[in-house]
Amino acid sequence: xxxQVWKIEKFATDKTDEVMSFTYQTGRNTQFDSWSPGxxxxxxxxxxxxxxxxxxxxxxxxxxxxxxxxxxxxVQEVLFNDLGGAGxxxxxxxxxxxxxxxxxxxxxFEKSLxxxxxxxxxxxxxxxxxxVGTSIIGNGLGDxxxxxxxxxxxxxxxxxxxxxxxxxxxxxxxxxxIYLFARSNxxxxxxxxITFARTASGSFQMGYADIKRIALxxxxxxxxxxxxxxxxxxxxxxxxxxxxxxxxxxxxxTVDDSASQALGFAQWQVLSRDDPDExxxxxxxxxxxxxxxxxxxAIYANIPVVTVSYKNPGDNTTLTSQxxxxxxxxxxxxxxxxxxxxxSPLTYTQFFILNSATFGVLNTSKLxx
Length: 369
What we know:
Blueprint: E1 6-10, E2 13-14, E3 19-27, E4 39-45, E5 59-64, E6 70-81, E7 91-97, H1 99-104, E8 107-113, E9 116-117, H2 118-126, E10 135-139, E11 145-146, E12 149-155, H3 156-167, E13 170-174, E14 177-181, E15 194-197, E16 205-207, E17 210-214, E18 223-227, E19 234-237, H4 239-245, E20 249-253, H5 259-272, E21 280-286, H6 293-300, E22 305-310, E23 319-333, E24 336-345
Parallel strand pairs: 10-14, 15-16, 15-22, 18-20
Antiparallel strand pairs: 1-2, 1-5, 3-4, 3-23, 4-7, 5-6, 6-7, 8-12, 9-11, 13-14, 17-21, 18-19, 21-24, 22-23, 23-24
Helix pairs in contact: 2-3
C-alpha cells in the first residue's frame, strides 16, 4: 500500500525534516459530546535549539501530501525534553490547537446576542473573533432558533457548543475554516463514498486493523430533560422503554427560544435513541494496509457519512451500517500513519427527505422515519 507522506510548515517554511513524530485529534467521540478543540502535537529534534523558533500563535500547516487535506493550527505551548551533556538527542513537543481552540480562549463580556437561527447566530456574532485569514462557514441558518442574550459572558466556544447542542447539527474544522451544518443540511453530507470493511478493496474501501462495535450504554435514551434559557425545563419519556429497562435519562442545557422548541428537542432525542441495540463504532485503519488518499479527500470535502461492513463472531453474514464520522485521531511515525475514527449511527441525525437515497426512499421502511 501507499505510505501516507506528511508535510509540516511553520507559516510558509517547511519544517518537516525537524519532526520526528506527531499526534493529531479532532472532533468528538459521540454525537452527544461537546465539540472540543482539536490538537496537533509535534515531537521535534531540539539538539541545536530548533524549538526556540516557535512562538505563541505561530501558524502551523499540516498537509497530507498527494491528497486535498490540509489544516491550520496555532502554537500554544512548547515542552522541552533536554538531555544532559551537550544536549545531543534532546527533543521538544510543540503543542498546537485548531480554530476551535482559539475560540476557546476568546472571552466575551456582556455581549449582546440577537435571536437568530442557531448556526446563523454563531456566524454573525463570532466570525470577527477568528484569526486573520480564517472564517466560520454556515451551511444553513439553523433549523432551531437560538434565544437572544442581552449580556452573554463566556467563551465563544462555549456559546458555539450551546448553539450546536440545540441544533444537533454537525461541525468540522479543516483547511482554515470552521464548518457548521444545520441539522437539515446534514443531507448535504451524503451519500458517503468511504466503506470500512475487513479487507481493503479499490480506492474507497478501507480495510480496518481493528473495529469495536458499541451498543447499549450511552447510545440509549428513554427520558430527556431540556433546560432552555427562556422557559421552564421540559421533559419527555418513552413509557414503553421505561417499563422495559427503567429510566435511562439525559439532561441538556440549550439556547432554545421557547418551551415548545425545547420539548421538541427532548422528544427527538428520545425517539431517535430508543433502540439499545443501535451500534456505533471505533475503527482503526493504517496506511500499511490502505491507500488513505480517498479517506482524507472525503474528510477535507466534509463528507463524513460512511458505510461500515462487519460480521458478528460465529456468523459469516456480512452486515452493513450507515454511520457518520464524529471525530478521528492519528499517531504518525516515519514508518506508519495510524488513525482511529469514531462514528455514530446516521439514524441519530436523520430526517425523512423525499426520494433521498440515504435519508428516505419511497416504498421502503425508511418512509417511517
